[in-house]
Write a structure and sequence with these properties.
Layout (H helix, E strand, L loop, with lengths): L5 E7 L2 E7 L8 E7 L2 E13 L8 E7 L20 H14 L9 E11 L6 H15 L9 E8 L2 E4 L3 H5 L3 E7 L4 E11 L1 H29 L13 H19 L4 H19 L7 H23 L14 E5 L7 E7 L2 E10 L5 E2 L8 E2 L1 E6 L16 H14 L12 E10 L4 H15 L9 E10 L2 E6 L3 H6 L2 E7 L4 E8 L6 H26 L13 E6 L5 H5 L4 H10 L2 E4 L4 E6 L2 H15 L7 E10 L2 E7 L2 E6 L20 E9 L5 E4 H14 L1
Parallel strand pairs: 5-6, 16-17, 27-29
Antiparallel strand pairs: 1-2, 2-3, 3-4, 4-6, 7-8, 7-9, 9-10, 10-21, 11-12, 12-13, 13-17, 14-15, 18-19, 18-20, 20-21, 22-24, 23-24, 25-26, 25-28, 26-27, 28-29
Helix pairs in contact: 1-2, 1-8, 2-4, 4-11, 5-6, 5-7, 6-7, 8-9
Length: about 700
């Protein structure tokens, strides 16, 4: 029945990987089932028969589908089925999209759909890597025009050693989470998160991963040669040469004059009459070709910008190739929020707001990678007004999710651990104005907001991008690219990091790849630029995290108790913990391992709740001082509850520094008093002294 069924087997960094074709998905353009360890991913690529009308771009969609049955789980939603893609699935789709997109014909308008369906997950074999390689195989053997193949690998840094395709245990302790993709000749995608890894180590990790990529690409070529289908002859949507040449002769001087400014608004205002004049002349000559004429105008602007850069070393706004746009940084911009920072680079401006919350407010995750929550969340918003447009807000798209994740990844290595800083953190970057590199602006603004909020980050982080223009063997890089240089250039190499090293990389390309020399230069230029941004701008705005949190932020304390004592702290039906929360006006979260997080607006109430929990979890110690509540009065003294269920007696002789005739003369039921434990007898009865507690406090005051 399956006469075309074939299995191809090879090794990926020492692990077996197989590709099965010809049994499943017979109607897809190209289909392959990838088995990598016990990870199984079904990859399908399909193209529409006809081009989509009325568009000026190549319509590619890439989807990474996480199925919770792949990890033996039932979805937690009401419908008990997978809903919208998780953030991790969206980010994986983008990671696969970036290396394959530049290899499609730029003049093709047929829809292409790539779908990677995760059927099972082996934690030691990452499904995103299997999906990327499987996508390359599916495209290579299909009839879809594509100048592949590519391959990709994960790279880690474990105990100072570079590891290709690390297993789950190695990834857990790795200082680097790097994904490298490439063709047989060039690196075409880099995505990284790192614990301040230096440039040389990062470069070596990229090159080590790329060496493994090249082996896999050669293997995929053998599959393609054996079972690949003939490529489809598509209808080209290239702008006719004679039309482009005519528009160029007519308007190139006007286009140059319009583009030659550092102000985006001025540029757009200058371009409008030029575009109108072009349409007025050429629309009658090329009827019903307005979209093609618009494409020719775009190509002419691209031609001018690239010729300036390559032939004259001239940038649109007059800067030098290694010059950063004017910078500004502010903190404390917004009142009442827990922290805020605004970062401006030229006409790009990002405002980030930091909010501190209880650990229980960490985001709950429902994905396939084993991560069930995260306490540090970074979100990025890109409203239409930031680019002078009027589109309605429809929630975050893939771009917004990707940029937020990049900033989150860049800052995560410097966020203090939950034991050092027992808070959940949410950062929201609002793009106020955009003329390129907003994602890197959000990294800078977020560092400012964290420091303004008093978060004791390990080091400040800045972000910067490096651009590229190529022509044959000629190439040149420029730092801090603005919008036009991003649109018309070949690369957006984004790097976030501290003075010490890199914390995140994301590389977007419009060409088939980079040489090692270009990568090395981009790393060096971005390092120099982020050092300048940190020293000359950000650290002058706020040199260190504030020593105190905002008065509006919850005050948090944490402690660890023995897990066996959790039941006593909670109490029957939650009565004990509810009483502590009510009496102290706090919120308490208890983890299964015995970690207790207590938060409230008043730090004194938080400290009091901590003392109560400690008293419950640890037997009262002789000599310790507690704040308790008077529960009963007797002729011989008063009973004081120092913690729920733990009560002691203050004898009448221990109530005050003077002789007390009646207990009622000193305390009444409900009073809060400081008491010191003086004795615990063999039956566990606690003897307390208010007099000794007052004397101890007075002695401390005198010492100060």
């Amino acid at each position: 029945m399956f006469e075309h069924y074939r299995v191809f087997e090879t090794q990926l960094a020492g692990k077996k990987i197989t590709f099965e074709t010809g049994k499943m998905c017979a109607l897809a353009g190209g289909s392959v089932l990838v088995r990598y360890g016990e990870t199984t991913v079904l990859c399908n690529a399909t193209m529409s028969e006809k081009p989509r009308e009325g568009i000026d771009f190549f319509p590619l969609s890439v989807d990474f589908e996480e199925k919770l049955y792949s990890v033996g789980r039932i979805p937690g939603s009401f419908l008990r089925r997978e809903g919208r893609p998780s953030e991790k699935a969206i980010l994986t789709s983008r990671v696969v999209d970036r290396p394959i997109r530049p290899l499609f014909p730029k003049d093709m308008r047929n829809d292409v759909s790539v779908v990677m369906t995760v059927l099972s997950v082996d934690p030691d074999c990452q499904p995103e890597i299997a999906g990327m390689i499987g996508t390359s195989v599916a495209l290579s053997i299909s009839n879809i025009p594509w100048n592949g193949p590519i391959a990709g690998v994960a790279v880690g840094l474990v105990d100072g050693e570079i590891v290709v395709c690390p297993d789950a245990e190695q990834r857990a302790k790795s200082d680097l989470q790097l994904t490298v993709a490439g063709t047989d000749k060039k690196v075409c995608m880099i995505e990284a998160g790192a614990n301040e890894v230096d440039d040389d180590t990062m470069f070596q990790a990229i090159m080590t991963g790329y060496a493994e990529v090249q082996k896999m690409v050669e293997f995929i070529k053998t599959i393609q040669a054996e079972i690949g289908k003939p490529k489809y002859q598509f209808e080209s949507m290239e702008v006719p040469h004679e039309l482009f040449d005519a528009i160029k002769d007519f308007a190139i001087d006007d286009i140059k004059a319009a583009l030659d400014t550092d102000d985006k608004n001025v540029r757009e205002a200058r371009l409008l009459p030029v575009k109108n004049a072009i349409h007025e002349k050429f629309d009658p000559l090329y009827p019903e070709q307005e979209a093609v004429i618009d494409e020719a105008i775009y190509k002419l602007q691209k031609f001018v910008v690239r010729r300036w850069l390559l032939d004259e070393g001239k940038r649109v706004d007059g800067r030098k190739l290694d010059e950063i746009r004017p910078l500004a940084a502010e903190v404390g911009v917004i009142p009442r929020v827990h922290g805020s920072g605004m970062f401006t680079r030229g006409q790009t401006q990002v405002l980030t707001i930091a909010t501190l919350g209880t650990v229980s407010e960490a985001q709950i995750l429902d994905g396939i990678d084993g991560e069930d929550s995260k306490r540090y969340m970074h979100q990025y918003n890109f409203p239409s007004y930031s680019v002078g447009e009027t589109k309605p807000s429809r929630g975050p798209g893939r771009r917004e999710i990707g940029h937020g994740a990049l900033a989150e990844r860049a800052l995560l290595p410097v966020i203090p651990s939950v034991d050092e800083f027992p808070y959940a953190l949410r950062l929201v970057s609002e793009v106020l104005s955009s003329n390129g590199s907003t994602s890197q602006g959000s990294i800078c603004g977020s560092t400012l907001a964290l420091m303004d909020a008093g978060v004791p980050i390990k080091a400040p982080v800045a972000g910067i991008s490096c651009g590229l223009v190529t022509e044959g063997d000629r190439w040149m890089t420029m730092v801090d690219i603005q919008g036009l240089e991003d649109f018309f250039g070949d690369m957006d190499f984004k790097v976030g990091g501290t003075h010490k090293g890199i914390t995140a990389i994301q590389m977007d390309l419009k060409i088939d790849g980079l040489t090692p020399k270009i990568i090395k230069e981009a790393l060096a230029k971005t390092h120099k630029a982020r050092d300048y941004i940190l020293d000359e701008v950000m650290l002058k705005a706020i040199p260190a995290p504030r020593e105190e949190l905002s008065k509006y932020a919850p005050k948090m304390k944490s402690l660890t108790i023995h897990p066996d004592k959790i039941r006593e702290v909670i109490g029957s039906g939650g009565k004990v913990i509810q009483k502590i929360c009510a009496d102290c006006d706090v919120k308490i979260d208890i983890e299964d391992d015995g970690r207790v997080f207590i938060s409230g607006i008043d730090i004194d109430n938080v400290k009091r709740a901590v003392q109560i929990v400690e008293t419950i979890a640890k037997d009262p110690e002789v000599g310790a001082i507690y704040r308790g509540k008077v529960t009963r009065l007797m002729n011989f003294g008063a009973f004081v509850e120092i913690a729920p269920g733990k009560e002691g007696l203050v004898h009448i002789s221990k109530l005050a520094n003077h002789r007390v005739e009646k207990v009622e003369d000193v305390v009444t039921v409900g009073d809060e008093v400081l008491v010191k434990v003086t004795d615990i007898d063999q039956q566990g009865r606690i003897n307390l002294s208010r007099k000794d507690a007052l004397a101890a406090i007075e002695a401390k005051r005198n010492q100060k």
